[in-house]
Structure to design on (198 residues):
Protein backbone atom coordinates (compact mmCIF):
# COMPACT_ATOMS: atom_id res chain seq x y z
CA UNK A 1 0.00 0.00 0.00
CA UNK A 2 2.83 2.42 0.86
CA UNK A 3 4.53 1.54 -2.45
CA UNK A 4 1.33 2.36 -4.35
CA UNK A 5 1.00 5.66 -2.48
CA UNK A 6 4.62 6.56 -3.26
CA UNK A 7 4.09 5.72 -6.95
CA UNK A 8 1.06 8.02 -6.99
CA UNK A 9 3.06 10.76 -5.27
CA UNK A 10 5.86 10.52 -7.83
CA UNK A 11 3.29 10.57 -10.64
CA UNK A 12 1.64 13.72 -9.28
CA UNK A 13 2.18 16.66 -11.60
CA UNK A 14 3.65 19.93 -10.41
CA UNK A 15 0.35 21.61 -11.32
CA UNK A 16 -1.66 19.27 -9.09
CA UNK A 17 0.86 19.61 -6.26
CA UNK A 18 0.73 23.43 -6.47
CA UNK A 19 -3.07 23.37 -6.62
CA UNK A 20 -3.25 21.19 -3.52
CA UNK A 21 -0.80 23.30 -1.48
CA UNK A 22 -2.42 26.59 -2.51
CA UNK A 23 -5.88 25.14 -1.93
CA UNK A 24 -4.99 24.09 1.60
CA UNK A 25 -3.49 27.52 2.26
CA UNK A 26 -6.71 29.10 0.96
CA UNK A 27 -9.10 27.17 3.16
CA UNK A 28 -6.94 27.48 6.29
CA UNK A 29 -6.60 31.24 5.85
CA UNK A 30 -10.33 31.65 5.14
CA UNK A 31 -11.11 29.54 8.21
CA UNK A 32 -9.15 32.11 10.22
CA UNK A 33 -10.93 34.93 8.34
CA UNK A 34 -7.66 36.14 6.81
CA UNK A 35 -8.30 37.86 3.47
CA UNK A 36 -4.92 36.69 2.07
CA UNK A 37 -6.73 33.39 1.64
CA UNK A 38 -8.49 34.84 -1.38
CA UNK A 39 -5.12 35.29 -3.13
CA UNK A 40 -4.13 31.68 -2.45
CA UNK A 41 -7.57 30.56 -3.61
CA UNK A 42 -7.28 32.39 -6.92
CA UNK A 43 -3.85 30.84 -7.57
CA UNK A 44 -5.14 27.35 -6.72
CA UNK A 45 -8.11 27.86 -9.03
CA UNK A 46 -5.82 28.62 -11.96
CA UNK A 47 -4.19 25.21 -11.41
CA UNK A 48 -7.54 23.44 -11.30
CA UNK A 49 -8.84 25.00 -14.50
CA UNK A 50 -6.23 22.86 -16.26
CA UNK A 51 -6.61 19.74 -14.10
CA UNK A 52 -10.41 19.70 -14.33
CA UNK A 53 -10.26 19.98 -18.10
CA UNK A 54 -7.83 17.05 -18.25
CA UNK A 55 -10.13 14.99 -16.01
CA UNK A 56 -13.08 15.62 -18.39
CA UNK A 57 -14.99 17.60 -15.75
CA UNK A 58 -15.96 20.69 -17.76
CA UNK A 59 -18.25 22.17 -15.14
CA UNK A 60 -15.48 21.96 -12.56
CA UNK A 61 -13.13 23.69 -14.99
CA UNK A 62 -15.62 26.51 -15.57
CA UNK A 63 -16.18 26.70 -11.82
CA UNK A 64 -12.51 27.51 -11.29
CA UNK A 65 -12.80 30.63 -13.48
CA UNK A 66 -15.70 31.72 -11.29
CA UNK A 67 -13.54 31.18 -8.20
CA UNK A 68 -10.96 33.63 -9.52
CA UNK A 69 -13.63 36.30 -9.96
CA UNK A 70 -15.07 35.54 -6.53
CA UNK A 71 -11.59 35.77 -5.01
CA UNK A 72 -11.45 39.37 -6.16
CA UNK A 73 -14.95 40.03 -4.82
CA UNK A 74 -14.19 38.23 -1.56
CA UNK A 75 -10.99 40.23 -1.05
CA UNK A 76 -12.82 43.52 -1.62
CA UNK A 77 -15.82 42.60 0.56
CA UNK A 78 -13.71 41.28 3.43
CA UNK A 79 -11.53 44.39 3.26
CA UNK A 80 -14.65 46.55 3.51
CA UNK A 81 -16.10 44.59 6.46
CA UNK A 82 -12.78 44.14 8.32
CA UNK A 83 -13.65 46.93 10.77
CA UNK A 84 -17.03 45.50 11.73
CA UNK A 85 -17.41 43.78 15.09
CA UNK A 86 -16.70 40.00 14.87
CA UNK A 87 -16.02 40.27 11.14
CA UNK A 88 -19.66 40.86 10.21
CA UNK A 89 -20.67 37.15 10.10
CA UNK A 90 -24.34 36.82 9.14
CA UNK A 91 -26.99 34.15 8.58
CA UNK A 92 -29.68 33.46 6.00
CA UNK A 93 -33.31 32.56 6.81
CA UNK A 94 -34.30 28.91 6.24
CA UNK A 95 -36.74 29.83 3.45
CA UNK A 96 -33.87 31.37 1.44
CA UNK A 97 -31.96 28.10 1.72
CA UNK A 98 -35.01 26.13 0.57
CA UNK A 99 -35.19 28.32 -2.54
CA UNK A 100 -31.44 28.04 -3.10
CA UNK A 101 -31.45 24.22 -2.89
CA UNK A 102 -34.40 24.02 -5.29
CA UNK A 103 -32.66 26.30 -7.81
CA UNK A 104 -29.42 24.31 -7.49
CA UNK A 105 -31.29 21.05 -8.16
CA UNK A 106 -33.04 22.47 -11.25
CA UNK A 107 -29.89 24.03 -12.69
CA UNK A 108 -27.98 20.81 -12.05
CA UNK A 109 -30.56 18.75 -13.94
CA UNK A 110 -30.50 21.12 -16.92
CA UNK A 111 -26.71 21.37 -17.20
CA UNK A 112 -26.27 17.62 -16.64
CA UNK A 113 -28.53 16.89 -19.62
CA UNK A 114 -26.58 19.35 -21.75
CA UNK A 115 -23.26 17.81 -20.68
CA UNK A 116 -24.51 14.31 -21.55
CA UNK A 117 -25.53 15.41 -25.03
CA UNK A 118 -22.74 17.81 -25.95
CA UNK A 119 -19.57 16.76 -24.11
CA UNK A 120 -17.56 13.77 -22.99
CA UNK A 121 -18.14 14.64 -19.33
CA UNK A 122 -17.26 11.72 -17.08
CA UNK A 123 -19.85 12.41 -14.35
CA UNK A 124 -22.35 14.95 -15.69
CA UNK A 125 -24.86 14.87 -12.83
CA UNK A 126 -22.34 15.02 -10.02
CA UNK A 127 -20.21 17.55 -11.90
CA UNK A 128 -23.23 19.83 -12.36
CA UNK A 129 -24.51 19.51 -8.81
CA UNK A 130 -21.16 20.20 -7.18
CA UNK A 131 -20.53 23.11 -9.51
CA UNK A 132 -23.80 24.90 -8.75
CA UNK A 133 -23.50 24.15 -5.03
CA UNK A 134 -19.94 25.49 -5.00
CA UNK A 135 -20.93 28.61 -6.91
CA UNK A 136 -23.52 29.38 -4.29
CA UNK A 137 -21.28 28.44 -1.35
CA UNK A 138 -18.53 30.73 -2.63
CA UNK A 139 -20.96 33.63 -2.87
CA UNK A 140 -22.15 32.96 0.69
CA UNK A 141 -18.52 32.80 1.87
CA UNK A 142 -17.64 36.10 0.20
CA UNK A 143 -20.71 37.60 1.91
CA UNK A 144 -19.57 36.19 5.29
CA UNK A 145 -22.67 34.00 5.71
CA UNK A 146 -22.28 31.25 8.30
CA UNK A 147 -24.08 28.58 6.29
CA UNK A 148 -21.47 28.59 3.52
CA UNK A 149 -19.59 25.88 5.43
CA UNK A 150 -22.57 23.48 5.31
CA UNK A 151 -22.79 23.77 1.52
CA UNK A 152 -19.04 23.17 1.30
CA UNK A 153 -19.30 19.98 3.34
CA UNK A 154 -21.87 18.62 0.89
CA UNK A 155 -20.04 19.71 -2.26
CA UNK A 156 -16.61 18.60 -1.06
CA UNK A 157 -17.80 15.11 -0.17
CA UNK A 158 -19.06 14.53 -3.72
CA UNK A 159 -16.06 16.25 -5.34
CA UNK A 160 -13.77 13.90 -3.39
CA UNK A 161 -15.40 10.95 -5.10
CA UNK A 162 -15.29 12.59 -8.55
CA UNK A 163 -11.56 13.31 -8.53
CA UNK A 164 -10.72 9.94 -6.95
CA UNK A 165 -12.67 8.13 -9.66
CA UNK A 166 -10.80 10.09 -12.36
CA UNK A 167 -7.35 9.18 -11.05
CA UNK A 168 -6.44 12.21 -8.92
CA UNK A 169 -5.97 10.72 -5.44
CA UNK A 170 -4.13 13.68 -3.94
CA UNK A 171 -6.75 16.11 -5.16
CA UNK A 172 -9.37 13.79 -3.65
CA UNK A 173 -7.36 13.97 -0.43
CA UNK A 174 -7.41 17.75 -0.67
CA UNK A 175 -11.21 17.73 -0.80
CA UNK A 176 -11.34 15.43 2.23
CA UNK A 177 -9.20 18.03 4.01
CA UNK A 178 -11.60 20.74 2.82
CA UNK A 179 -14.50 18.79 4.32
CA UNK A 180 -12.78 18.44 7.68
CA UNK A 181 -11.79 22.10 7.74
CA UNK A 182 -15.35 23.08 6.76
CA UNK A 183 -16.67 21.27 9.84
CA UNK A 184 -14.26 23.19 12.06
CA UNK A 185 -14.92 26.39 10.10
CA UNK A 186 -18.64 26.13 10.74
CA UNK A 187 -18.08 25.59 14.47
CA UNK A 188 -15.60 28.47 14.75
CA UNK A 189 -17.78 30.90 12.78
CA UNK A 190 -20.86 29.86 14.76
CA UNK A 191 -19.07 30.74 18.01
CA UNK A 192 -18.05 34.12 16.59
CA UNK A 193 -21.57 34.74 15.30
CA UNK A 194 -23.03 34.03 18.74
CA UNK A 195 -20.50 36.35 20.36
CA UNK A 196 -21.33 39.21 18.02
CA UNK A 197 -25.06 38.65 18.65
CA UNK A 198 -24.69 39.08 22.42
Amino acid sequence: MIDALLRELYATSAVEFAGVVLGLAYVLLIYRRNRIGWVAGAASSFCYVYLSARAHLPMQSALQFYYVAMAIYGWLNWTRTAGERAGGIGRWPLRYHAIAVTVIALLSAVTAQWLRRETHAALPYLDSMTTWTSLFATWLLARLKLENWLYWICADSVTTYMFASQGYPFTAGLFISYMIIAVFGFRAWLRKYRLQSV
Residues 2-197 form one domain. The chain has one domain: 2-197. The chain has a mean pLDDT of 86. The two ends are 51 Å apart (CA to CA).
